[in-house]
Amino acid sequence: MSIPKEPRQLMINIMYLVLTALLALNVSAEVFNAFKLVDKGLVKSNKSLDDSNNSLPEAIKTGAKKRASLATYADRIDPIREKSAEISDYLNKIVTDMKTDFGSGKGGFKLDENGNETDDLKMAKDYDVTTRTLVIDHDGNPGVGEEIKSKLMAYREEMLQYVDEEDKPNFMKEIAVQVDDETWQKKGKASWSHMNFDHMPLQAVIPLFSKYINDVKATESAALKYLAGKVGTTTDVVLDKYTVVSAPEKSYIIKGEKFKSDVFLSAFAGADSKTGISISVNGRKLPINKDGIANFEETATSVGIKKFTGQASITNPATGETQTFKKEFSYEVGERSVAISPTKMNVFYIGVDNPVEVSAAGVSSKDVKVGMSGPGGGTIKKNSDGTFTVRVTTPTRKGEEAKINVTAPGMNASKGFRSKRIPDPVPKLSRNRGGAMPSGEFKAQLAIYPELEGFDFDAKCNIVGFRLVRVAKRQDAEPAENRGGKFVGAAAALIKKAKPSDRYFFENIKCKCPGDSAPRDLGQMVFNIR
Fold first, then answer.
1. Which letter, b or e, does each residue of 347-369 get, where b requires 16 or more Cβ atoms within 10 Å of its Cβ?
2. Is the N or C terminus of the chain more exposed, i.e. has fewer CB atoms within 10 Å?
């Protein structure tokens, strides 16, 4: 017994064996419903085989016209199809006769509550009709079971007649029709038909017949595909055009480097070919020209490595099967080698991330090495987007520079930068640096804060502390020390006492910014309360 190559067919065969075993243990409604499902699957599979088999003859006849010697293969089409149709019709008629066995008075289909015929057999569990029809009737006359066996064996041999002698050993492996003539003898059964049909319920026998029909159609398909292969119209896609393709190792090189490329012959299907081919890039379908080539283009809007995924789908005109192939490609976008840098602004600030862009025109970014040297305690790190981040810890003195060094195949370059502290922030209270402020607004304030005016880096400074002095009219000055920028304790109490004509002095304001080792003095603010 051959093992089917198609996963669906293998699954169906296994399901049938399992259900047969279940039937032997316990005949229930669920088991019979399962047999119905198996049969429906086989019927659907048979239809698919019919569709495939109907598409092959024309392709074989077209291929046979290429040479007179191939005509013999086209002549074998009709006999193969006629033999297959003959035995399929024979098996279908036996099933129909058993389903409609009106002679027993029990044949036909059940009706629903509206009197309409369903697909449920009246004799689903009846095993008399199967035994009487296929094994032996009540008068002792043999049924048609052994005749079925003979016809299946004869069909198998007939299909071999349409295969060239040297191809028969391989083709025999493709024949789905098999007759197990050993198991029934080992089990001591009277015959092949006794083993397969004796006292088997009708609902269990029907999918077995559908399987026989499926085997016949699968064998017919194997025979037609064999003929297609002999005339050069295989079930594989035919690529009918050729061209030379160059696949370079790099999309560009610079002076002194070697250009390397794979050059090979490529076969493809032209636009006028019967082979269905479609090409897309990143999901966007591309038009194909008369040479079967699709042109992809896009505008480069930024530098760096760009990737795209190409997909080609090819449909077999004989079987309707579509194969899809995918591959990822890349190219690199550079900029023209023009750069303008204002020299007096080449500054790195301590304590913050300083962004740097490094590009070497005509060189792949993966071949560019970037480092840092000189004073400033600097380090440089490459980011995922191809830019770099520089951190410095120490100010450079006059005449000193931190160096960014760039090396790449065929070039070395460096550029100097100064390293400085973040500029002094401006202390503010409610957006003001001093002056007149209404008492209500003044008392509503919670803290003073430092603002880095005109500084575009992501940096935050913090007030360390200050001395607050309230001077009320005709009263002694009231001082208070405050830690941090938020008003707390005595300083907060002084703020709440504010009245028109009072003066408040924020003195000795101390602040620390990123990179500072010690607080810096921001001076003082004076507010007149009105």
1. ebbbbbebebebbbebbbbeebe
2. N
